[in-house]
Design a protein that fits this description.
about 180 residues; about 0% strand; 10 helices; mainly alpha
């Protein structure tokens, strides 16, 4: 960029690096500059939304980061996940669940999105709806025993003591000091 400040792709890459480093403000500036230099909106949309999320600009995400039928499904899923996270942090849980479900429907494989969706269902008291999602989390990341513990507790609350005992037994076997 020092040799060619109008290199749109370099600005896009730099914006992505800033997102990974947690520097939302610098990422936003670079990504907007990249778009101004001709990078397509769909290439900037997700990292720009992530930069806004890092800055706590939830209303701006809801207002500006939109999905459309013309976006590839992977990008549309990520946009819905971003909108779900922003809405959740804005205490719009019902609307957040809609976007997180849409992200899942579009095959967003992000473990974070799936976890957020399952935990939001639990928070809303929709335990029966959350159970299959918790099982998916365990299948996707069997080494993460926290998911198994949440499943065990959800099974207990939902009136399935046998299922809860089976999950707690697995926890006790894999990590005896955890109980």
């Amino acid at each position: 960029l020092s040799q060619n400040p109008n290199n749109a792709q370099a600005r896009l890459v730099l914006g992505g690096i800033y997102v990974k480093l947690g520097n939302g403000l610098s990422a936003e500036k670079e990504l907007e500059h990249a778009q101004m230099l001709g990078v397509p909106r769909e290439s900037v949309l997700v990292p720009l939304g992530e930069s806004l999320l890092l800055q706590g600009k939830y209303e701006q995400i809801v207002a500006e980061i939109q999905s459309s039928d013309t976006l590839p499904s992977r990008i549309a899923a990520e946009v819905h996940a971003l909108r779900g996270k922003a809405l959740l942090r804005s205490d719009s849980k019902a609307e957040a669940i809609t976007h997180l479900q849409r992200a899942r429907d579009l095959k967003d494989g992000s473990l974070e999105t799936r976890k957020l969706h399952a935990f939001l269902l639990l928070d809303l008291g929709r335990i029966a709806d959350a159970l299959p999602h918790l099982r998916e989390l365990i299948a996707a990341a069997p080494e993460d025993l926290a998911h198994r513990e949440v499943l065990a507790r959800a099974l207990h609350i939902s009136g399935d003591p046998d299922g809860a005992i089976a999950e707690f037994a697995i926890l006790a076997e894999r990590q005896p000091d955890s109980l």
